[in-house]
Amino acid sequence: MSGAVRRKPRAYHPDRVRDAVLAQVEAVRLAAHELTPEQRAKAPRLPELLGHLARQIDALPRLLAEPAPRAMRPQLDITGWVLATVHEERDAAPVDAIDAAAEEVEAVLETGVREDLLVPHHLGAMRAVDLTVTRVVELVLHSDDLTRATGHHVQLDRTALAITTRVLADALAAKAPGSSTELRVPPFAAVQCVEGPRHTRGTPPNVVEADPLTFLRLATGRTAWDAAVTAGRLRASGERSRALAAELPVLG
After folding, report:
1. CA-to-CA distance for 195 and 185, rounded, in angstroms?
2. Percent residues over pLDDT 70 in the chain
3. Domain presence at residue 76
4. What's the structural domain count of the chain?
5. Mean pLDDT value of segment 177-204
6. How confident is the model at residue 89 (pLDDT cuts 50, 70, 90)?
7. Which of 59, 96, 111, 167 has a Cα at 20 to 30 A from 248?
């Protein structure tokens, strides 16, 4: 018998999601303008990265402007978006596009981030608040990409980092359901996953623990499991903990 436990989808309050988007958009906008010529030279694919960031910021106002979906209820939730998303390379856009996208998203956040509003998405209709959560995830991940590519530190808003960590931890638990292994990403998330004997009390025999940035990079294929272990940024104990490595990444 499987040890899988069905989890109720995690709820994200619109106000916290709204604040997280605004804070991370501003961090990205400032970083894009502060890049020195030397930092730009370090990242030959910088225009592509900045262009992708601009499109992620612009996604909410763009989709809100489209005709309302015919669906009566959401067809896609946050975890479904994570497990179905594959990033594709797109045309580049200038830094100015980030400024323009930031203005657009700020204009719609006050009224557009709602639990009772459905917006179109190519994978299925989503609640507006859920779509906005996906923008938080994209912004955090690509802010980290920008930091690593240029050496210029892009501030990660704490709420945005917490949301992204929980979204990806929940997606990993959904991809590898079970209760034999505990994934810990302090201070933001702890979930049980991987089929096997269910742990009920005391210290779990199988534990995987990482800091938030290491986990995000693992969950999106930016860091390899063995490299994270060697660097001391990932700790895995118990014979079943290694099973999680085969389930990564969760967001392609």
Report:
1. 20
2. 92
3. yes
4. 2
5. 84
6. low
7. 59
For residue 232, the Cα-to-chain-centroid distance in whole angstroms is 23
* Confidence category of residue 4, pLDDT binned at 50, 70, 90: very low
pLDDT, one tens digit per residue, over 219-235 is: 999 999 999 999 999 99
- On whether the CB atoms of residues 234 and 213 are closer than 8 A, the answer is no
Q: Is residue 40 located within the same domain as residue 148?
A: yes
Q: Is the pLDDT of residue 52 over 90?
A: yes
Calpha distance 31→23 (Å, rounded): 12
Same domain, 37 and 144: yes
Could you tell me the residue range of the domain that residue 154 belongs to? Answer: 14-161
CA distance 99 to 30: 9
Judgement on whether residues 39 and 154 belong to the same structural domain of the protein? yes
> Do both 73 and 145 map to the same domain?
yes
Q: By C-alpha distance, which of 231, 222, 236 is closest to 168?
A: 222
Q: In CATH, what number is assigned to the domain containing residue 183?
A: 3.30.1050.40
Nearest to 215 by CA among 137, 105, 123, 134: 137
Q: Is the pLDDT of residue 3 over 60?
A: no
d(CA 19, CA 110): 10
Task: Flag whether 9 is in a domain.
Answer: no
Give a yes or no: residue 141 inside a domain: yes
CATH number assigned to the domain comprising residue 108 = 1.20.120
Say if residue 147 is in the same domain as residue 106.
yes
**106 has pLDDT over 90:** yes
Decide if 1 is inside a domain.
Answer: no
18 closest CA partner among 30, 26, 10: 26
- pLDDT-derived band of residue 197, with 50, 70 and 90 as boundaries? low
Distance separating alpha carbons of residues 237 and 107, to the nearest angstrom:
48
Three-state DSSP class for residue 51: helix
